[in-house]
UniProtKB/TrEMBL annotation:
Residues 1-22 are annotated as: Disordered. Residues 1-14 have a biased composition (Basic and acidic residues). InterPro entries: HATPase_C_sf, HATPase_dom, His_kinase_dom, HisK_dim/P_dom, HisK_dim/P_sf, Sig_transdc_His_kin-like_C. Keywords: Coiled coil, Kinase, Membrane, Phosphoprotein, Transferase, Transmembrane, Transmembrane helix. Its EC number is 2.7.13.3. Residues 235-262 form a coiled coil. Residues 269-490 form the Histidine kinase domain. The chain crosses the membrane at residues 60-81, 87-108, 120-139, 151-169, 176-194, 200-222. This is histidine kinase. GO terms for cellular component: plasma membrane. It comes from Salinarimonas ramus.
Length: 506
């Protein structure tokens, strides 16, 4: 019953956690959809801002290399154009570059950008990029008027270089890419139409092909930037969820510690409050059962007194088991370790339980290796382990059954205690149930045997405190075997005799 209730509580907790997670995910989806509907690019507002910010950072970072590139091309252009014309073009180009740098720095210094401000900045950057592209297109238009083969190669180089610069630096704002490349394409087209020469047509086709290639490259860079932002957002969301989960875990741990402390205080108080009247009940019922002050007027009173005494004893055992299990689970069970002989403990426990076994016609057989050395352990805990295992074996073994106890060496040099009965056995799926606190198997419920379901959990807890191992083997109609092992480091091997030196004759 307790195991089923705990399972239902876990299912309810998992269901509540799943509902909370689903509501959080729905809220995130609704917020993302709202931002996409109010966005001009179909992305979330945070992504749009970050993309424009990347554009501004690229522009500021590439300012000096662009100034150097413009100066180098201006120096080369003086080969075909007058110096004054080239100087005018250089001044216009540097002005356009400076305007872009100023706009980018102003955007980066802005503390926050709402939807309208972000749209204004995007349009300003597109216009600035168009001005920058127009300055370079002006140079191409000047060069196109010079009838020289070397000039055509230089024009092709300049157009490809500027197209690559615009496509790579402005990839995160697609409108700026198109605005920056449009003036170059227009100038090249007009020059081709006015010239009509086949060489000019070939040059225009090469420039147009280069622009198409770099536009596709810009789109790919834009997609990569968006994917990177999405990945970063998912990672940030994951970090937030991890922080929230850690906070919830810390809160749950704090509540668990408070509940455990409250449970410990409750058990400490109730153990005293229950044991005081319970000892009086046991004492008086034992006096009445033994008819110390004279025989009862009715035999039923004697039976009732025995029942009261047995029930009180069972309740006292239950209280002791609950307290023991609570101390073990809380890590407050202290071991009073000493050197003990495992064979001696087994003989005493078998002798104590022999009367209960004989009452059911059962036989207890022991096979103990008398050569076993002592072990370093808590004798009271080891006795409780053996008594709990024997008590279960006697309880669930039918009339005329047999219980076998074996004590010997383990393969690793430790010692073991194995208790095997000829009872009905336990189905494999019920073994975790009987190993849980207050868990009882199907056979125990059918036979209505008295028991709290704490015997085996206490055994396993005490064995774990000794660093040992616990194993339960059982199959229906084949009996049950419980094996308890103690590690080799608890075995006290006999010390070799001290060699005494012979005194030399005087």
């Amino acid at each position: 019953m307790a195991d089923g209730a705990g399972h239902n509580e876990r299912r309810e907790a998992e269901s509540v956690a799943g509902d909370v997670k689903h509501r959080r995910r729905v809220a995130q989806d609704v917020r993302a959809a709202r931002e996409k509907l109010t966005s001009s690019t179909g992305l979330e507002r945070a992504f749009e801002t970050e993309l424009v910010r990347l554009f501004a950072q690229y522009r500021v970072g590439a300012a000096i290399p662009l100034y150097v590139l413009a100066a180098a091309i201006a120096g080369a252009a003086t080969t075909w154009l007058p110096i004054v014309t080239v100087a005018v073009w250089a001044a216009l180009t540097l002005l356009a570059m400076t305007i872009m740098v100023v706009l980018a720095r102003n955007f980066l210094r802005a503390s926050e950008d709402d939807a309208r401000t972000l749209g204004v900045w995007r349009r300003l950057f597109a216009m600035g990029e168009m001005l920058h592209g127009a300055a370079w297109a002006y140079l191409l238009q000047l060069l196109a008027q010079v009838p020289s083969e070397d000039m055509r190669i230089f024009v092709l180089f300049c157009s490809v270089m500027i197209t690559a610069v615009v496509a790579t630096l402005s990839a995160t704002v697609p409108a700026a890419v198109y605005a920056g490349l449009a003036p170059i394409l227009v100038v090249v087209g007009l020059a081709t139409v006015t010239s009509g020469a086949s060489q000019a047509l070939m040059l225009a086709m090469m420039i147009a092909s280069a622009q198409v290639f770099f536009v596709l490259l810009a789109r790919h860079l834009y997609g990569s930037a968006v994917a990177t932002l999405l990945s970063r957002a998912e990672k940030d969301a994951l970090f937030v969820e991890l922080e929230q989960a850690k906070a919830n875990s810390d809160e749950a741990r704090r509540r668990a510690e408070e509940a455990n402390l409250a449970k410990s205080r409750f058990l400490a108080t109730m153990s005293h409050e229950l044991r005081t009247p319970l000892n009086a009940i046991l004492g008086f019922s034992e006096v009445m059962k033994g008819e110390v002050f004279g025989p009862h007027a009715s035999d039923s009173y004697r039976e009732y007194s025995a029942d009261i005494h047995a029930s009180g004893q069972h309740l006292l055992n239950l209280i002791n088991e609950i307290l023991d299990l609570s101390r073990i689970e809380a890590g407050r069970y202290e071991l009073n370790e000493e050197a003990i002989a495992l064979a001696h403990v087994i003989d005493d426990c078998a002798h104590m339980m022999n009367l209960r076994a004989k009452a059911k016609g059962q036989v207890i057989r022991t096979h103990v290796d008398e050569s076993l050395p002592r072990i370093w352990a808590d004798e009271r805990a080891i006795r409780q382990v053996v008594l709990n295992i024997l008590s279960n074996a006697i309880k669930f073994t039918p009339q005329g059954g047999e219980i076998t106890i074996k004590v010997g060496w383990t393969s690793s040099g430790g010692q073991y205690v194995a208790v095997k009965d000829t009872g009905p056995g336990i189905p494999e799926e019920e073994i975790p149930v009987v190993m849980s606190s207050f868990g009882r198997g199907t056979w125990a419920i059918k036979t209505a045997e008295q028991g709290s379901g704490l015997g085996l959990p206490i055994v396993k807890g005490l064995v774990d405190l000794h660093g040992g191992g616990f194993q339960l083997r059982s199959k229906p109609r084949e009996g049950t075997e419980v094996i308890v092992t103690l590690p080799a480091n608890r075995v006290m091997n006999a010390l070799p005799p001290v060699a005494q030196e012979k005194k030399s004759a005087a």
